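Hey all, quick one. A colleague (J.T.) asked me to put the V47 job into the tracker so the inputs and the structure tokens live in one place instead of scattered across chat threads. No bug as far as I know, just bookkeeping. Sequence used:
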Amino acid sequence: MLDLIESKIFNGDRLTFDEGVFLFEKAPLLKVRDLANHVREKKHGDKTYYVVNHHINYSNICILTKVCDFCSFARLKKQEGAYEMSIDEIVSKALEYSQFGATEIHIVGGLHPELPLSWYEEMLTKLQKACPQVNLKCFTGIEIDHFARMEKISVKEVLQKLQFCGLKSLTGGGIEVMSERVRKEICTVKMDADGWLNVARNAHQLGIRSNATLLFGHIETYAERIEHFERLRKLQDETHGFMSFIPLPFHPDGNRMSHLPGPDQEDILKTIAVSRLYLDNFDHIKAYWIVMGETTAQMALSYGANDIDGTVMEEKIYHMAGSQNPQQQAVDKLESLITDVNREPVERDALYNIIKRDEQHNLIT
Ligand code: V47
């Protein structure tokens, strides 16, 4: 089977479900690496993308706190550690970040039991006004579905309203693993895979692009990972709206699945490589360095990944550390992660437009 897979990859032919499972179960890691690296190189040469971005998590209050066993972030409203930012706080954070050159603000939160859609509309409107040059990449598919349920309107209407207020793209989270068997075990009663795909389809039809993730390395089988890829590949054939795929290795600390070890480095690298080979209609495979660490993210650039996401860091840490623009220090570090493994760093925005800056690091438009 490996010879057949190899010739399919070199001919640009699509892999079948069984071939995908075979790659995980039986193919040697270094062979899968070489095939994935070939595809990456054909698509992108040495170019490796990063984005100057920041994350804002507006609230961790979530109605699914007792549902999602893998989640360490969510809290019930009255629980210790629960928090909720005001719109003014969110806008001032975004302003601070955009002054340091961020082109993307990534905003997600829990499924808040009370905030109405108008609160999110106001947040986006004010953010857009305060930082018009920043791409507002906000919400997961499950948040969008939650807003629709709260307001008793369709997912499409929610997306239209948010798009009107400045929403440019959706993040790839909230889907974890599409397998119904796995979902019953780790997040029973949460929106199912069809619901998440429906949000992505509606978004793409409105011109709102999005990403896709897989939370892996817990109780799912290899076949269930391929099932997940298969469903993403099918929707991508239909809409071409996904930009990048981001495999998220499960982290066991502080959640109800902490008895599980999480995936090892070999599994992380193989998952990156198989996703590159199976998701033949996705341009970008992201090795999100925050979740896999810098070394594994660097290695992943030889296993099919062509993006390491962004600066992400809490700006204050750097601000206190010295006189240089803190965001620039983070950029220097990301660029050297890429150049250290002989790849060419390319700054992009949230939609993969290439960003050029002058010597003072100001955007050249
Ligand atoms: O949906 C939750 C995952 C996701 C854990 O679109 C966990 O560019 C590991 O979607 N261990 C949110 N993962 C993060 C996300 C994301 C991240 C970076 C970039 C983009 C993008 C999207 O994090 C959730 C969930 O699947 N997650 N808990 C955990 N314990």
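Adding what we noticed when we looked at it: Confidence is low (pLDDT under 50) at residues 315-323. The pocket of V47 is lined by residues 70-72, 140, 171-174, 176, 211, 213, 215, 246, 248, 250-251, 255, 288, 309 (CB under 6 Å).
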